[in-house]
Write a structure and sequence with these properties.
One of its GO terms (molecular function) is diaminopimelate epimerase activity. The protein is α+β, with helices and mostly antiparallel strands. The protein has helices at 29-36, 76-88, 102-105, 184-191, 229-241, and strands at 2-10, 13-19, 46-51, 60-66, 71-72, 111-115, 118-124, 129-135, 154-157, 160-166, 170-175, 201-209, 212-219, 223-225, 252-256, 259-265, 270-275, 278-286. The protein folds into two domains: 2-134 and 276-286, Diaminopimelate Epimerase, Chain A, domain 1, CATH 3.10.310; 136-268, Diaminopimelate Epimerase, Chain A, domain 1, CATH 3.10.310.10.
């Protein structure tokens, strides 16, 4: 099987993007893991499969696979790459929006994308890409999360106080004083706690200003990445909920290793993300 692909990145979070509309693609977990290898394969944090939608009212469906071959529900940086991919590859007749603010108030030229956990809206502007990630999910059973006690979505997991939230995929958010501290051992303790049946992405956030935070994310099935869009959204949603930031008044600048995202919360409590996505190279690989 010869597969044509595009390598893309969003703030250093890198993807192998495959058009599965115009070519037949079927990959096993082992094959995906081999392709993700940065020495022996293409190399990526996640693989994105762009498919035709199941509901004709939507524009696309996309599937997301981690480097270990596991399929996941959501990826904010991947959503931005998908939006640029389908427009520049002429897979949609929708075009880039000219008013960035229009994305917040209308659906004109926005692309409806099916994920495992629902439909998201994305739009490409001249300056960057906007994603409406939907509402944050707080109910433990819907995250899923095994603990039922809930005080402002804050729980104790293996001795660590974390905010637990889903953006279509589960996140645990730790507020820290020093973003440069060692995080891998802590992240693994939380991931291995048994409280998250589907695993969890662990975010470490340092609040540096009323409207600015620094963030590192240790993702399930990948490890620490240079950026995590859904992690940035989950973090801002949690900090807004507990009153540490006010994302409804002004977008929060999230400073990640790979670059910067802007995250806001609109009047309907939907999480809006703005950032960039770039093409790296194109190729084909025999599987």
């Amino acid at each position: 099987m010869l597969i044509k692909f595009t390598k893309m990145q969003g703030l250093g979070n890198d993807f192998m993007v495959i058009d599965a509309i115009n070519q037949s693609v079927s990959l096993s977990k082992t094959q995906i893991k081999q392709l993700s290898d940065r020495h022996l394969g293409v190399g990526f944090d996640q693989l994105l499969l762009v498919e035709s939608p199941e509901n004709k009212e939507n524009d696309f469906k996309y599937r997301i696979f981690n480097a270990d071959g596991s399929e996941v529900e959501q990826c904010g940086n991947g959503a931005r790459c998908l939006a640029r991919f389908v427009i520049e590859k002429s897979l949609t007749k929708k075009t880039a929006i000219t008013e960035s603010a229009a994305f917040k108030y209308s659906v004109k030229n926005t692309i409806l994308v099916e994920t495992k956990k629902g439909v998201i809206r994305v739009a490409v502007a001249m300056s960057g890409i906007f994603v409406d990630m939907g509402k944050a999910i707080w109910k433990p059973k819907d995250i899923p999360f095994n603990q039922l006690k809930n005080e402002n979505a804050t729980h104790t997991v293996n001795g660590y106080q974390v905010g637990v939230v889903s953006m279509g995929n589960p996140h645990a958010v730790l507020i820290v004083d020093d973003i440069n501290q060692e995080i891998e051992s802590i992240a693994k303790k939380i991931q291995n706690s048994g409280d998250f049946p589907d695993g969890v992405n662990v975010s470490f956030v340092q609040i540096t200003h009323e409207f600015k935070v620094k963030l590192r994310v240790y993702e399930r099935g990948v490890g620490e990445t240079l950026a995590c869009g859904s992690g940035a959204c989950a973090t801002v949603a949690y900090l807004d909920l507990i009153g540490r930031v006010n994302a409804k008044d002004k977008d929060i600048i999230v400073d990640l290793k790979g670059g910067v995202l802007s995250i806001g919360v609109n009047e309907g409590d939907r999480i809006l993300m703005y950032g960039h996505a770039e093409f790296v190279f194109e190729g084909q690989v025999k599987v």
